[in-house]
Amino acid sequence: MTFKENFPLVVENLTKIINGQVIIDHLSFKLERGKVYGFLGPNGAGKTTTIRLIAGLIAPTKGDIYVEGHHVQKDKLKALSYLGAIVENPELYNYLTGRENLLHFARMSRAPVSINRIEELIKFVGLEDAIDQKVKTYSLGMKQRLGIAQSLLHKPSLLILDEPSNGLDPAGIRHLRDYLKEISTKENISILVSSHLLQEVELMCDKVIIIQKGKYVDEIDVKGSSDTRVHTKVRFTIKPDQMSEAIKVIERFGQAKTEGDKTIVASVQYEQIPDILTGLVNAGLTIYECAPMKTSLEDQFLSLTEQREGVL
C-alpha cells in the first residue's frame, strides 16, 4: 500500500489558472479516514473551484489529486468510484418520486447497487414516509437528504458537500449535521463540507481546513482539548494583585484589557505565555489565577485569515 492509499483524499500542489488569474495556488492537504472536515475560506478563496477539481468536473492547471490512491485525471473512473459529491444543489428529477430517483441513479452506478442498499439509505436519511412522493413536493431539507442518499448509493469512502446548509431552516441544519456525523461513523466515510456557517462547522466537524486566495492557510483540530497552537493567538485570563502593573507587562507581548475589578483578559501568541508569566513574577506581582479561554472557531478563523491577509 502506497502512502496515498492510506488516505481517502490527497491533494498535492494543486493549481488552477483561469483567464490568466491564479484561482488555486499550489494547494496541498489530505483527509483522514472517518473524519468530518470543514472547508473554510473568505469569499473568493477558491473553495468551490477546489471541490470541482476534486470531483473531476474541471481539470487542474498543475498538481495532483488522489482518491484512495487513484489519480483523478489519469484514472478518473476508478478514482470517482470512491467519491460521492453534491456540488451546490442535489441533481434530482422533480417529476419522479424519491424512490424512482434512487433507482435511476442506482442503475447508472458502475458498481451494483442492491434494493436492500436503497431501502437502507431511505431509512437512514429518514424519508420513509415521503419516498414515494414526487420530489417536486419535497422541502429543501428533504431534497438535501435524498441527495445525500443518492451520493451514498455506491458506498463511497469520500463524500464532498458544497454549502449543504444553504436555504435550510435551523431544524433542517441540525438534522443535516446529525446525518453527516452519523454517516462518518456508521459508513467510515471521510466528509469534506464547504460552508460559511462557522458555528455549524464547529459543531459538525472534527477538523477544519482553511484556505485563502487559493492557498493553504492552516488545519484546525476542532475537537482538540485546548488552543495549544504554536504561532496562533490565544486568550487567557489572569488575576494579579496589581492590575495596572500587570497590564503594562502583558502589553509588551500583546493585547490586554480588564474584565471586572480583578481579572485581565490577554490576547497573545501561545508561545509567549511562559515569558509573560516570568515577566509578571520578576515585576514582583502575585498571580492568583491564570487560565486559558477556549477560542471559538470563528475567532481562530478570523485571526488566521487576518494574519495571512497582512502577508499576502
Automatic annotation (TrEMBL):
The terms under GO molecular function for this entry are: ATP binding; ATP hydrolysis activity
The protein's matches in Pfam families, at most eight in alphabetical order, are given as: ABC_tran
Q: Which UniProt keywords apply?
A: ATP-binding, Nucleotide-binding, Transport
What top-level branch of life does the organism fall under?
Bacteria
Q: Which residues form the ABC transporter domain?
A: 9-238
Under the heading PROSITE patterns, the entry gives: ABC_TRANSPORTER_1, ABC_TRANSPORTER_2
Tell me which InterPro entries the record gives: AAA+_ATPase (IPR003593), ABC_transporter-like_ATP-bd (IPR003439), ABC_transporter-like_CS (IPR017871), P-loop_NTPase (IPR027417)
**Family assignment?**
Belongs to the ABC transporter superfamily.
Q: What is this protein called?
A: ABC-2 type transport system ATP-binding protein
Q: Which organism is it from?
A: Bacillus oleivorans
